[in-house]
Every structure is written in C-alpha cells, then in structure tokens.
Design brief:
Blueprint (H helix, E strand, L loop, with lengths): L4 E2 L19 E5 L2 H4 L12 H8 L20 H11 L3 E5 L2 H4 L10 H16 L3 E7 L5 H5 L8 H16 L5 E6 L1 H11 L12 H24 L8 E8 L2 E3 L4 H23 L7 H13 L12 H7 L6 E5 L3 E4 L12 H5 L2 E4 L7 H13 L5 E5 L4 E2 L8 H20 L4 E7 L13 E2 L3 E3 L8 E3 L1 H12 L23 E5 L2 H4 L12 H8 L20 H11 L3 E5 L2 H4 L10 H16 L3 E7 L5 H4 L9 H16 L5 E6 L1 H9 L14 H24 L6 E7 L2 E4 L5 H23 L7 H13 L12 H7 L5 E5 L3 E6 L10 H5 L1 E4 L16 H14 L5 E5 L12 H19 L5 E7 L18 E3 L8 E3 L1 H12 L19 E2 L5
Parallel strand pairs: 2-3, 2-13, 3-4, 4-5, 5-6, 6-8, 7-9, 8-11, 11-13, 17-18, 17-27, 18-19, 19-20, 20-21, 21-23, 22-24, 23-26, 26-27
Antiparallel strand pairs: 1-30, 9-10, 12-14, 15-16, 24-25, 28-29
The chain binds 2-acetamido-2-deoxy-beta-D-glucopyranose.
Subunit structure: Homodimer.
GO molecular function: beta-glucosidase activity
InterPro entries: GH, GH_1_N_CS, Glyco_hydro_1, Glyco_hydro_1_AS
Amino acid sequence: MRRLVIALILACACKAQDYEFPSDFEFGVGTASYQIEGGWDDGGKGENIWDFVLHNNECFTADCSNADDACMSYYKMDDDFQMLEDLGVDFYRFSISWSRILPKGHIYEVNPEGVAYYHQLIDGLIERGIKPVVTMFHWDLPMQLHETGSWTNPRLVDSFVSYADLLFQEYGDKVFTWTTFNEPYQFCEWGYSTGLHAPAYAQNGIGGYLCGHTVLLAHAKTYRLYQESYKELYGGQGEIGITIHGAWREPVEPTDEDRAASDAALQFTFGWFANPIFSETGNYPTVMIETIEAKSNEENFRRSRLPSFTQEEIDLIKGTSDFLGLNYYNSYYCSADFDNSAVTVPSMTNDIGANCRGVAVSTESWGLRKLLKYIKTEYNNPKILITENGYGVNSAADSLDDCDRTNYFNSYLHTLLNSIYEDGVNVIGYTAWSLMDNFEWQSGYTRRYGLYHVDFTDPERPRTPKRSAFVYGNIISTRKIDRFFAPTSYEACIYTFPDEFEFGCATSSYQVEGAWDVDGKGENIWDYMTHTDPGVITDNNNGDIACNAYYKTEEDVELLENLGVDFYRFSLSWSRILPGGHANFTNPAGIDYYNGLIDALLAKGITPLVTLFHWDLPQPLQEIGGWTSPLLVDLFVDYAEVIFQRFGDRVKNWITFNEPYQICQEGYSEHNKAPLYTQDGIGGYLCAYTVLMAHAKTYEIYQSRYNSDKEGKMGITVHGIWSHPQDINSDADKEASESKLQAHFGIYLHPIYSEEGNFPPSFIERVDRLSAEEGFPWSRLPKFTQEEIDLLKGSADFLGFNHYATDLCYALSADETRRPSHEYDSGARCYKSDMWESAASSWVKVVPWGFRKLLHWIKEQYNNPEVVVTENGFSTFGNDVTDCRRINYYNVYLEALLQAIYEDGCKITKYTAWSFLDNFEWMDGYLEKFGLHSIDFNDPNRPRTAKMSSYVYNNIITTRKINRDFTPTGFDPCDFDVIPEMERP
Ligand SMILES: *[C@@H]1O[C@H](CO)[C@@H](O)[C@H](O)[C@H]1NC(C)=O
C-alpha cells in the first residue's frame, strides 16, 4: 500500500468544536483586600470587622489564624505586578479596603496613605496595560460602622454611598469597571444569620434578610450616583455592576416537587439579589416574599422577616447594573425531601425547604452553563462578567503540580465557550480566583485557591507559579483550551478512569462464528441473502466461515485474557439455538457451544455481556413477515426464555437488541442490511414497534421470572450519531439537528428512558401530519396503547450506546427528498464533513467532541441514566498491525468520555471497543476492518495477530488512563500529527 503522509494535524479534526474566545473577551484574576494585603494597622489603616473578630476570638478560623500579614501585598506590589504580567491578564480584579481609606468608616477622616496606596496600585496596572477592575466592598467593614448597626442597619446606605463617592472622585478618571459589592448573600447570610463570618452574629432567618435589604439600596444609590455625577465626567465609558454568587440547583428527580425545591433554592441564594436588579418586575423573587411571609406568620412574628421595598425603592433598584458579575464554583442537586426537624427555625435553610447537596466531582461544569442560560432567559440577556471561578484544595494536598485545578479551569472555560457560542450568552470576561493562595476566611490558610503558591511560613511570603498559572497563561495567549498543553517540565494533565469503570470488547455471532450450517444450525437472513445474491456484498463474500470463532473458543478467550478486558460482549445466534426460529426445538449443539464459551470466560474472570439479537434473524421468521410483523414479539420472547433458562444462572448482563435503527430502517426501509427491503417511511416504523415491544416484554418476563436475585441487568443498545447544526448560528439548522436526533436515536430511546414514554412527541406529530398529507388513512408510525407505553417505560437497567461518528445537519425542504421517507420525516439532511479524518468506512469519522455532546444530550434528555458504551471503534484497510490511526481514535474518544464523566457528570459505567477481531463487516464484507486483532482470511485456519492497538488498549485498562506516548514493545512510536492516507484495496 502506498503511504502518503499528508500534513494534516489530527487536532484539526476537532476544528468545529475548538471555539476560540472572542477577540474582545477579557481574562483576569481576582483577589480581595483583607485576604492578601496584611499591614492590618499599618499606614493609618483602621480596624475592620475581620480584624476585630479574629483578634478577639482565640480560634475563629480553621487554623486559628488571622490576616494581619496575609500575603503582605501591602508591601509587595511589585511582586504582584510581576505575576500579573507573567500571566498576561487583561485585567486585575481587586478590592479596596474601606478602613484603609476611611479608618473610621465615615467620610470625615480620610487616610492619605491609604488613598495613595491604591493610586499606586492602579497606576502601576495601567502602566502595564492591565485594566483595574475594582470591588468597593469585599467584606471588610470598618469597625466603627459595625458599632453603629452594621449592614442590618438601613442607615449604612448613606455611609456606603459617601465612601463610594470618595472612590469615584479619587479613582474615577482611571477605573472604568466597578463592582459595588462582592457576594452579598455570603456576607449577609454568613455574617448576620449563621455567624460563620465576621461579625459572627447568628440572627438566623432575620439578620441576613435585613443586611440584604440595606445592601441592595446601597448598591442602587451608588449606581445612580455614578450615572448622575461621574459617568459623563469621565468620558462615558465607565461601567458599574454588582457581583453575585451563583450555584445552579438541579432537581434530583424530574418531578414537580424537586423542581420547585430546586427553584426555591436558586431564588433564595441567587434571585435574592439578581431579581431586584436584573428582572423586569424588580423586587425580591415571589417565592421568597411569599414563603418568608407565610413562615413568619406560622412562627408568630408580627410581620414578615423579609423587609419589603416601597414601589419607589423597587424602581430605584431595578436596572442598576451595567453588567452582572457572577461568581461560580459548583452546582447542587436538590430534592423536596427535606427534614425540617434537623434545622434551626427560623432560618433561611428552613425557609427554602429543599435538601441540596453539592455535585460529587467539582470539575463537573454543566451547572454553570445552565445558570448562564437561565440568566439569559430570565433577565433579558444581560452582559455577564465572570468575576470569580476557581478550585480550592486543602493546603496539605495542594501542590505546584495542580492537575485538579488545571482540569477545573479547562472544564469551566470549555463550558463557557459552549455558553457563548451555542447558547448565545453574553459573557464578556472571566476572572480566575485567585491570583495567589491567600487568607481563605473561616478556613484560614488551610485552603488554597491560588494560581501562585504562597509560602506563609516564610516572612517574605515568596510566590511560586503552579502548573495552573502556566496553563491559564497559555489559554490567555492562545485564546483557546488545549487539554494537552503541558508547561515545560510538566506532563499533560489527564483524568483517570474511576475504579469501578469496566472495559470490554465486542463481536457478534454472524460476524465471527462461521460454521453457518454446522451441528444443526438453521439458516438466517444473512445466510440466505449472501447465498442467493452474493453481489450485494462489496467483496462478494459472506459469513460462512468468518473468523471461525465457532471452533476457537479456547484461543479467543486467551486473547481476551491478554487484552485484560473486564467483560466480553458477544451475541447469540438465534438459528444456532432454535434452528427453525420457533421454540419447539432447541439445538443441543448450539447450547453446548455457548455454554463452552460462557464457562471459559468465567473461568478467566471475564464477565459475559450477552446480546440476544444482533441482526441474524432465522430465515423462517422472515418468511412470516420478519420484524415488520407484531407476531415476532412473542416469538422473540419465546427465544429469550430459552436463553434465560439455559444460561441465566451464569449470565447476568443482557442486551436485548443491537441497534434497532440498523435492523429496522436499514433492513426494511433503506436496502442497506438484510433482508434488503425498501419500504421507506413504513417498514422501518412497523419494525420499530415490534422490536420495542419485544424488548419490553422480554424485560418484564426476565424481571418477573428469571431475576429473582436481582443481580441481572438488562438494556437495549441503540446506535447514535451526534447531529450538529451545519451553521451553529442558524435556528433552522439547530432545530433540524434536534429533530434528526429524535428521529434517529430518540425514536428507540424515548419510549424506554423518557419520563413520559412513547415515541418522541415532535416525531409523532410530524409523521402523523405528513402521513395525512400524503393520503394515508392512518399514520405510518404505529400507535402504542397506553398499556404498551407503560410497559415500555423504564424497561431497562442501563442504556446501551453504540457510537462512531458525528453529522452536520440542515433543515430539509420538501423538494430535496422523496416522500414518504424517513429522511423527510426527520426534517433534516445530514452529512459528514470532509474536514474530518475518515476511517476506512465512510460513516466513521474522528469527531470526539460529538461523542461527548451526545453523551451529554442523553444525560439531559433521559435524566442521567446509566450508560454502557456498547460499541466504539475505527476501521482500516489491510492487515497492517501498526494501527496508529485506530490508536489515535481510541485515545481521543476515551479522552472525550472521561470529560463526559468528570466535566458533564454523565453516568457512564462501561466501555466496549468494537471490535475484538477483524470480521465480516456486513455489506462491506472483509474489506473494512475494526479489529484489535488482525486475521488472515486467506488462511483456512484464520490465524489471529494482536495489533498495536490491542496493547495500547490493554495499557489503558491496566493504567486506567490515556497515555498518548505509550508505545508497546516491538513497535515504533506513532506520529499522531500526520495521518497516513488509506487507499481502498
Ligand atoms: C417446529 O415448528 C416449525 C413450525 O411449525 C416446524 O416447521 C418444524 O418442523 C418444527 N420442528 C420440530 C423439530 O418439531
């Protein structure tokens, strides 16, 4: 074979997904005065509530520390500038210490040294081309103001406004991005309700709400002051906003109760401040007003614990932000299952009435995308600046090689790109928290968030960049995320597969067994078709001998053992077990063969994962109508019962059907699989009905009669192609992509895995309508009865998912296709981009991000079911065992799968490589080869040779991670940057 080396970088295959940050998008890092400055009583600074609380409590923080010195940033401005320059940030978000400028809090005594300190900081930033983004209040309230009532006193509004006025006068000509407050929920609720933060008051259910009320008014008046007196004065470009902490709340179950509980949690924690400022109606969220009022009543308060705004105040607050500053760290699952006996009454926790817990893996970034989408819809697409996002690690566990933090940033920034490009959310910038390790409030110095490590035992407080600092710097300079970027002297960071995750590989009976008419086996539709019409197969071949696996149990199990797989997925040949298709005669030799295979696997500790039907229907059953006839439902259940009786004692993992789309659409509508029928828009749907009902009845009978120990698990395997809009900005293309997914994938999944059951409603509607238009007296899509819908719903313990590639889709017009047709019913035309690297099979392309997107889609559509990837693989031509392109495919697809687990929170428990062996590839005969092992099909003995990919797969299984540089002994390293061109033999 001629080998052309073409200069196509493999990574380019992901182009469509590798969004770049828009050119005007800005990156920054954040800090806060009290957390870094130190110099607590130096340079004329006054005492603040944190100084006071930490000086007057022996041990308020986790390590009994305070921030008297913190990072000593008050003395180390040049060091801080250096870090900011090295990172290459566009802006630096820091806060001004109120008591450094106004030691007594009130405006009557200004501290010139404090004022000068911030002038120096701001000027130094501007000289270096770094924009100052200034927080006016980041929790360090001057002590005197605390003693006159603190934030619970509405009179503090005026004190804050006069402080703000001074800041605008001093710095307004050079600071053009301001935020009034950082995270009012946190300092109000923790400072005045739970006592977790200074001033450590615990007026639960009362103090926090009073504080929030003052803060909202102080914010609004400050905003108005800036608009009226300073904005024009300073050239009109200045913007002023507020920073709110947000955490998405996802219902545990998609029930009305859990949804309501999640929404309440979101409104109390985020809507509390977002709604009065950003909503059209203004005021607190209705659920807060109503709940707190009702609970206050029950608790015998004379008035609601939540203060109310006058209409004038509502109007004053509404719209007072040029952007929304959002701090985001993690997401929560919430349910209505709330035990109020375990909480303080009154309290906000009790007012919310939801049971929330954080997501287990904090790299899971999907919640940010949901919250951004929510903000867009709810608050009319405001401008958003992410003012904080970062990853905290216990000091003892944190290291300069902080892969966990690096993965966190990669994950969240990836999600942010999706929010920007796919959801059209108006995010203008991103702030990593934090520039350096610092004083982490009640955790003291026991938690680190920094891109730079700070040694707090050294009086010089030296700063050292962590891996994440280099990675973040690389994202800023390249404006995109490169998961495999590794700074000098570091390896790339990768995820490892969870301990309980299992690996396997797969085959199917007709593709490997051979022995087509041996020992009493009956004829199936593939035997019949390939014998009567050999020309339909590309190489005029058939599965008569195939890999001869029927005779090679021992050898194959040994190869599986070498591979190190946890399980082997294979299918049973119906006509080897029931030669005539009916259960009136069971072929003992067929039973013996499978017993031998199952026992040999179990003896080696390999779990059998058995597919009941992988396309080789007994020919006699085709002759009574095949899968288009509902009679097949009971005949399939009969067959399945024979299987359960004979093998169910040892086999506990079952797949009823492999790829109903291929059985039905390709077999009965598209002339692309046996029996090669062409009833487009009709045959495929009749078949779908039968197959789905056969699945559901089999599941029911298995559960009720054969799974008494409840160890057995059963699912169905559906082939899914990610449908991506051809033009991401076109609503029509987006709609077409979704419609295609429902028609191709959802048609088999929705009846089983969705909450409401039945075929996807949009698809039913469309086929019913088109059938009527076409003059059919009935819909071409069969109807399930309510009883059938209920039987199907939930009839699986996991979702089997085969995946190979991605499509680009656009809306299909009526004159572009024939009718009736499944394509027209799906409303989309889909194709594969020439940009993508192709396998030998034209339907396989290297598009790993599509795999991840489809896994995420499954999670969203069907409430995060357990997913078993039952097939995934890459085809080549010829017998070259140095199969670098296959290795690359496995590496990048498994990498995408890890991201789906860790970043998207998908519940994926198993992965199956297709295929264990090169085999009979259906209509393409022996030309297109998917195997981890090569077979010489010219040798009657069908000898097997392990390909390089089988060693790489074994290495992944044993090390539980992807190592692109792994080269098995005896092979030359792969150069993944160049794709050797393949030629069709
Ligand atoms: C089983 O039933 C089929 C269909 O009626 C029949 O053709 C076949 O001869 C029967 N086989 C045996 C062994 O009875």
